Amino acid sequence: MKTADNKHQDAWLVYDGECPVCTVYCRYIRIRETVGTLHLVDARQPGELMDEITAAGLDIDQGMVLKFKDVVYYGADAIHMLTLLSTPSGLFNRLNYHVFSHRLGARIAYPLGKAFRNLVLKLLGIRYINNLASKH
Q1: Which InterPro entries is this protein grouped with (predicted)?
Q2: Is the overall model pTM greater than 0.70, yes or no?
Q3: Is there a contact between 110 and 76 (Cβ–Cβ < 8 Å)?
Q4: Pairwise CA distance, residues 61 & 87, whole Å
Q5: Any idea what DSSP says for residue 68?
Q6: N or C, which end of the chain is more exposed by having fewer CB within 10 Å?
Q7: d(Cα 101, Cα 83) in Å, to the nearest integer?
Q8: Mean pLDDT per 10-residue section of the chain, whose length is 136 residues
Q9: Which distant-in-sequence residues (6+ apart) come within 8 Å of 41 by Cβ?
Q10: DSSP state of 34
Q11: CA 91 – CA 19 distance, rounded (Å)
């Protein structure tokens, strides 16, 4: 029999803390209580998880990262997995579920969201994170 501690598997979502689009998304996304806690990690702050992402060669400017059960999901795969972990409560989460719960939907919609994010950053004069620049 599993104990309550074994049932919960926390998740870590790495996002751009200066991006208004990313911040709004992170403010409203909710994962099911049976999953555990969703930890939001600002990619602009140094830390072990950002070191792991950079070492894996993942460009955080090109996609969010979700770490769940020691598996790293990137870009459309991250948003798809996060959607599968999320609760159906609230209009935002229901809409999110309808768009991103299927891999095809995530693969189509995620690049559109990323393009919108890039446009917003450019219009607001917010620089990219460039986490891979230090590797060159």
Answers
A1: DCC1-like
A2: yes
A3: yes
A4: 27
A5: E
A6: N
A7: 6
A8: 54 95 90 88 96 96 95 96 89 88 92 94 96 74
A9: 12, 13, 14, 15, 47, 49, 50
A10: T
A11: 22
Q: Quick one: tokens of 66? A: 């979700």
- Burial letters for 39-55: b for 16+ Cβ neighbours within 10 Å, e otherwise? eebbbbeeeebbeebbe
Q: Quote the crossing angle between the two packed helices 103-124 and 76-85, to the nearest 10°.
A: 110
- Tokens representing 100? 């991103």
Burial of 66 (0-12, 13-18, 19+ CB in 10 A): buried
Tokens of residue 13, six digits: 């979502």
Domain boundaries, the chain: 4-135
